[in-house]
């Protein structure tokens, strides 16, 4: 049981400078296989970053990574989570003009 708690602590570790986790970075880069691996290891898809309170789905939607958005949504990432300016992932996709992501969300 201790190992599980340790693993959870590390998989959700956030940088002290920007509050980004490994899942935030993988989602922002569209690294769907890494996103899946992190989710399998217990990464929290709704963990906000330390700058704008964006979650992994915000990053993937903003950068136009449809497959990553779909995977995060299937894993239960909240599509209703808002960042510091009250934008949901859908708002960010619409702002970028990405119809595929808008339809996926």
From TrEMBL:
This is Ankyrin repeat protein. It comes from the Eukaryota. SUPFAM superfamilies: Ankyrin repeat (SSF48403). It comes from Micromonas pusilla (Picoplanktonic green alga). It holds the Pfam family Ank_2. Keywords: ANK repeat, Repeat. InterPro entries: Ank_Repeat/CDKN_Inhibitor, Ankyrin_rpt, Ankyrin_rpt-contain_sf. PANTHER family: ANK_REP_REGION DOMAIN-CONTAINING PROTEIN. ANK repeats lie at residues 18-50, 85-105. SMART domains: ANK. The keyword ATP-binding does not apply. The keyword Repeat applies.
């Amino acid at each position: 049981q201790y190992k599980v708690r340790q693993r959870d602590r590390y998989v959700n570790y956030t940088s002290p400078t920007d509050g980004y986790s490994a899942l935030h970075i993988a989602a922002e880069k569209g690294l769907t296989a890494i996103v899946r691996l992190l989710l399998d290891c217990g990464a929290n898809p709704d963990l906000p970053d330390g700058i704008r309170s964006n979650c992994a789905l915000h990053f993937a939607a903003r950068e136009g990574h449809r497959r990553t958005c779909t995977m995060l949504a299937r894993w239960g990432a909240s599509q209703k989570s808002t960042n510091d300016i009250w934008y949901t992932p859908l708002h960010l996709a619409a702002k970028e003009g990405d119809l595929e992501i808008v339809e996926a969300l």
